[in-house]
Amino acid sequence: MAVLEVLSYPNPFLRKHAEQVIHFDDALRQLVVDMTETMVAEDGVGLAATQVGRDLQLLLVHPTALDRDSDPDAPNVVVINPQCIWQSEEVALGEEGCLSFPGVFTQVRRPVAVRVSAVDLDQRPFELEGRGFGARALLHEIDHLRGVVMVDHLSYLARQRALKKLERNLADKKASKPGRRDKAAAV
Ligand code: NI
Q1: Which of 47, 67, 93, 151 has fewest C-beta within 10 Å?
Q2: What's 62's domain CATH number?
């Protein structure tokens, strides 16, 4: 098991449109184990493979991100080759954080509900619904697999503000000062 390095924006890998997973092998299972450990270490509720430098359409989402009442000790949902098959017309602004933007939280407009189809580690197809933060988390992670990051959804000024804050936080991190933590969960 290993904690993987989470790439920070503007690492060019975060702009990659990830390849479909075709090999459902031990290496893929190991990557899921390592990404799980990385999420625990980074205190994140979602993580896409592209954030750890893997060119694969694979994301993990913690069940509490999808449903607040879920068991906090339940395993992550493994989502492979996801497709958004439906999203609500209704949208809402909500706070969003991202492990690739340490300590940065922004207000992003997203659909309030979404339905996603995917396969699991055994290539079994399944569907997943997200509402509220759950929809936000799923869309945020699927964005990562398409090379899209949360600041792409912001207006020019909000984006500049977020990038300034990121610059400061990454400099603080280098100087090993504790980063500013916020209340929202990072994905
Ligand atoms: Ni993210």
Answers
A1: 93
A2: 3.90.45.10
CA of 67 to the centre of ligand 1 (A): 18
Count the helix, strand and coil residues of the chain and give each as a percent rounded to the nearest 5. Answer: 35, 30, 35
pTM beyond cutoff 0.90: yes
User: How many structural domains does the chain have?
Assistant: 1
Burial of residue 119 (number of CB atoms within 10 Å: 0-12, 13-18, 19+): middle
Q: In this structure, is residue 166 part of a structural domain?
A: yes
- Per-residue pLDDT reduced to its tens digit, 117-164: 999 999 999 999 999 999 999 999 999 999 999 999 999 999 999 999
Ligand 1: centre distance to CA 175 (Å): 23
Q: Cα(87) to centroid of ligand 1, in Å?
A: 19
Q: In this predicted model, what pLDDT tens digit does every residue of 49-91 receive, in sequence order?
A: 999 999 999 999 999 999 989 999 999 999 999 999 999 999 9
- How many A from CA of 177 to the centre of ligand 1? 22
What residues make up the domain containing 32?
A: 12-176
4 domain residue, yes or no: no
Residue 183 placed within a domain: no
Question: Which residues are marked as active site?
Answer: 141
Q: 58 in helix, strand or coil? A: strand
Return d(Cα 11, Cα 9) in angstroms, integer: 5
